[in-house]
Structure prediction request, 576 residues.
Amino acid sequence: MQKSWALHLLAVLAKATSVAAAPPSPRAQACTSSFDPITASAAFAALNPGWNAGNTLDGIPNEDSWGNSPLQLATLTQIQAKGFNSVRIPVTWAYHFDDESPTWNVNKVWMNRVETVVDQALSLGLSVVLNVHHDSWVWADPSVSNANTTMIKEKFSRLWAQIGTRFACKSSKLIFEPLNEPAGSEKAHADLVNNLNGLFLEAINQAGGHNPSRVVSLSGLGMSMDKTEMWFVRPTTYPNQPWGLQFHYYSPYDFIFSAWGKTIWGSDEDKAAVDQEFALFKGNFTNIPAFVGEWDASVTSTETAGRWKYFDYFIRTCNKYGYSSIIWDNGGDFYNRNAAALYDPATGDILVNAVKGISNTLADSTEDASATSQTSSAYIFHKFGDPVVAQSTDYLLNGNTFKSITNSAGKALDSSQYSMSSTGKLTLSATYLQTLYTSEAAAGTKETLTLKFSAGASLSLQIVQYSTPTISQSAFKIDTSTDLHIPITYQGLPKVAAVKALLEDGTYLADDWTQYLGPLQQARWTYGSWGFDKSTFSIYVSGLTALKNAGKTVTLTLEFFPRIQGQNSVNITFTQ
Ligand SMILES: *[C@@H]1O[C@H](CO)[C@@H](O)[C@H](O)[C@H]1NC(C)=O
Ligand SMILES: *[C@@H]1O[C@H](CO)[C@@H](O)[C@H](O)[C@H]1NC(C)=O
Ligand SMILES: *[C@@H]1O[C@H](CO)[C@@H](O)[C@H](O)[C@H]1NC(C)=O
Prediction:
């Protein structure tokens, strides 16, 4: 009697506690380490600004599979010295399970490796966001035709039970993020994300340790702002878990991904579009702490002055709405881990100054989408063979005053070489420029000057002598069997700015609607069908297939910086 009554009571208690709070479980552990409880808003504020160790532990299948060496403590130290206060460590766990259902044991060597990196970051005092990353499209994608959501939930719970157990006693500077950019497009997929968020909370709480007080970063479908606004519902379990939202921001798509010739950014409309997206998110989640877990405008693919403006405005918008941000870095376009240097120091300098609310001087540049040419004060361009005259470039001082201008050897220019007006117009004298632009000199960047101002970022100014690049062959018969790589010899900046694609009858190869865009965007073909590196222009099989399907002769016009409609471009013709 007595015994069975006691068992009944235990069963009732177990049932009650499993809904309301962390039930005791065989896995739950006690910690000897201390833990400073922190609110989600304080923890998120402490992230700012942050850096993603991208394409590293999230690589498939291994840490070094995507072109980066294993992450070094030294890199974290350097990133911190550059002014970053947190690191998001994306980890793809797929390919690191020792067995299958139902145990899904994570390989011990892998778990140890992840713990080593987390411990290194925490030892420096950095805040850390640890996640489950590309698993979202490897085994946790509910939108594929043969998706097994039962398996997804089981495996996800088992994975978080193991991560939750291993990291249960880490400090409150460690934040858990259940799943990067959960895949899918419709409400059913969003419902699964809400469900997985609940399973995640259950798994980490059952693992015990400090987890019940640990800040977690939940998200909606895709970590997109609008899908989160539409469908995110926070699980009602574990109401005392400190939490907030994470979203990712790669907008506007065309500027960030070099689509449709959008190399210009910074108009009032461009800025209003960013502000509007943040306003809607804030409107939906007024009292919920949130941060931007990924964003970027890549140094390799965006125009420099436009990028500087974007970085400055993006961060100031984050400040306005109270969101921290963590920049995405694939290792090839923000911080050069091997050289221990930013690929474009001004970009990083603008970011960290803007986070502090310090005014940055910016390079002026074309903002008007109806322009037929694009200027950029990140560069001074001189066309090979043109007479050498004084050249000017404009800065948006933003309340700062000019301090100094030095050349790449660190020597200050003297007053006969330049003048700077109080409104930010820099003029380099003809006699100075004549020392750089000589008829013997090969095209390319002749000098990089550094400008310092009373506050904020220092800016670089590249002095470039250019002529139109040459390609090894300009007529091809379309062959869709393999990517086409065409050697290119740049004669200035080593970049393809845009590609215009016209059929012989003058119609567009793709995206007819671009006729409503400005002259520098009409008929421009999307990056991704084509690409480039420092010596090659490539058209991928997908792009070649589009050329084939056009059924007519197609002319591609490759455009370079400076962009001038009808100039500084080369044509490549493709016949069927
Ligand atoms: C789905 O996954 C569950 C759990 O792993 C498994 O028991 C079930 O057989 C799977 N269903 C199918 C159709 O594969
Ligand atoms: C919430 O988001 C939706 C969808 O984006 C938007 O239509 C709505 O205006 C937002 N609400 C507020 C109060 O901002
Ligand atoms: C390149 O092709 C375009 C049509 O696509 C044409 O208007 C232009 O004149 C061509 N340029 C040269 C240098 O042949």
